[in-house]
Amino acid sequence: MKKINRILILFVVLLMVGAGSLTTLSPESSQDILANPVNWLMVVTAFFLIVAFVATFEALDAMKKMIKGNQAGAEAETEEAPVEEEEDWASGLLKTLTDAAPLDKEEEVATDHEYDGIRELDNNLPPWWLFGFYISIAFAVIYLLRYHVFQSAPLSAEELKIELAEAKAAEEEYLKTAANLVDESNVVALSEESRLLAGGEIFMKNCAVCHANDGGGGVGPNLTDDYWIHGNDISDVFKTVKYGVPAKGMIPWKDQLSAGEMQEVSSYILTLVGTTPANPKEAQGDLMTAAPAEEMASSMDNTAAVSDSTIAE
């Protein structure tokens, strides 16, 4: 039984060391380690190796005592004394951690307080409790100096702000990638001023040569009136920009522009509807109502500012 206790104590200590080392790793790395079945197989293998090592040691020790016992009885007794002390190792460790008086010495620490046959003993405070108490005091001092005196680490409120800023940056980075996942089946009109300005820059660089800087038309049709050849919905405009109209000289832009850029320029084109160009081209196509209100309401609020800013450039 004592041998089993030693094995269990040793194994628990090793697990505590392993668990403590995991706390120094990132959460992702810790989860990967815990989720890997190979690591658990190694833990079980290590446990049985420890058991085998202890069993082998005990067998060799028993053989040693048996050989010496056959040679001389006195020498055998001499050799057994330290073995008995070794077998009490777990009990000795427990006694050291508790520092409690043994049963045969309770009279030395007994007090005069007795009630219902129960006597009060004046034992020392357990060392394990004292160590924890001293460690908590040291931790409190270090915490106070670090967070409130030297302010070398952020408090909870500041840490929350930092994490929110990091989350915002991660969201923006994701949106940069997600912007290129749109197509004509799920595209929506943009309302963010920064992206509409980006769409205006794309329009000036690639589209103004045929549709004029203000969208009034030239080689291409007028984009400011309510007449449309291929539809005035955001998905229709996106599809026209993406695949072009080769029969009428408009090239497809899917190879030159990303999906996000095509969404930006398509959204910008819709903001030109209702503006007054300098030299508007005659109407072409069919008269259509304005784009759905839920898509265009926020975009139209920025029409004048975006157009003026782009034209000024």
Give an account of the 3D structure.
The chain is mainly alpha-helical and 313 residues long. The chain has 2 domains: 97 residues, no CATH class; 127 residues, Cytochrome Bc1 Complex, Chain D, domain 2 (Orthogonal Bundle). The strands form 2 sheets. It has a two-stranded antiparallel sheet. Helix 9 crosses helix 13 and helix 10 crosses helix 11. The C terminus is likely disordered.
In terms of topology, how is this protein built?
Blueprint (H helix, E strand, L loop, with lengths): L1 H21 L4 H9 L1 H35 L1 H15 L1 H10 L7 H4 E6 L2 E4 L5 H23 L6 H23 L14 H19 L15 E2 L5 H10 L15 H13 L14 E2 L5 H8 L2 H10 L1
Antiparallel strand pairs: 1-2, 3-4
Helix pairs in contact: 3-4, 9-11, 9-13, 10-11
Descriptive keywords:
13 helices, 313 residues, two-stranded antiparallel ribbon, mainly alpha, 4% strand, Cytochrome Bc1 Complex, Chain D, domain 2
Tally the helices: 13
> How many E strands?
4
Low-confidence stretches: 81-87, 292-313
Structural class: mainly alpha
Distance between the termini: 87 Å
In N-to-C order, the SSE pattern is: HHHHHHEEHHHEHHEHH
Strand order of the largest sheet: 1-2
Task: Tell me the count of domains.
Answer: 2
Give the radius of gyration: 41 Å
Could you name the CATH homologous superfamily of the largest domain? Cytochrome c-like domain
Mean pLDDT score: 78
CATH fold node name of the largest domain: Cytochrome Bc1 Complex, Chain D, domain 2
Q: Estimate the global geometry from the Cα principal axes.
A: elongated
Main pleated sheet: 2 strands, antiparallel
CATH architecture of the largest domain: Orthogonal Bundle
Sheet-strand content, in percent, reads: under 5%
Range of helix content: 55-70%
